[in-house]
Write the structure tokens for this entry.
Amino acid sequence: MSLLVKSAPRGEAIVKVTPESAKWKHVGFEARRLGAGERTDITLPADREGCLVVLTGTVDVDVGGQAWTSLGGRASVFDDRSPHAVYAPPGSVFRVTASTDAELAIATAPGTGKFGARLIDPSTMKRSVRGTGANTRYVCDILPETEPAESLLVVEVLTPAGHSSSYPPHKHDTDALPDESVLEETYYHRIDPPQGFAFQRVYTDERDIDESMAVGDHDVVMVPRGYHPVVMPHGYRGYYLNVMAGPRREWHFRNDPAHEWMIAR
């Protein structure tokens, strides 16, 4: 199961994916946990922009000569509210101090320093509902292509128990704009209750990639290419944070033709 990255149950580092470990070019992702009063420094490489998302808890953040206090506030990623996030250009250092127990996500992608550090306030994030019936899920656009960044796209999704998500299966691995774009992607999964699991499949038309995974709380699934649907079993809600990046900062996808019939039904 080369596309499944298992998380560490203890310690600051929860999970980490780099372009080198993923054997791709664009997306980097990591998650960290902090106890109340703890501090961590997160240094961006000289050629990579970053987006820090306060998943849970309350923290102070200092980066690029700017400081923000009391960011976050969610007790759980399943709370019905958007997160705080902070964007920073390449070479920046996020200095984060936790006021309470906290969980952080850090997304990175190639950048040259075109944009300065800024707070992304929850009030600016678009929230929407996708799908119908047992395919309904709830989306929050943290850093969409309509907001300034060089490469990064960041979004979080809540999937109710017994529902499918990223479904019908879709892909974005072919340079065929405006119909489809090339984007690598990571899925950072949270499960409620945490002893549960999600199912995720990643597969291509040719089936040179075809992996079906049982994904635990805090695990990451890497999507280098191919379709990548998620299904939540009865009794367990799912959350995932998506990070996408590619040669162009545009999200266009193609549904698997074998399953597209259900959209028009």
User: Anything to note?
Assistant: The radius of gyration is 17 Å.
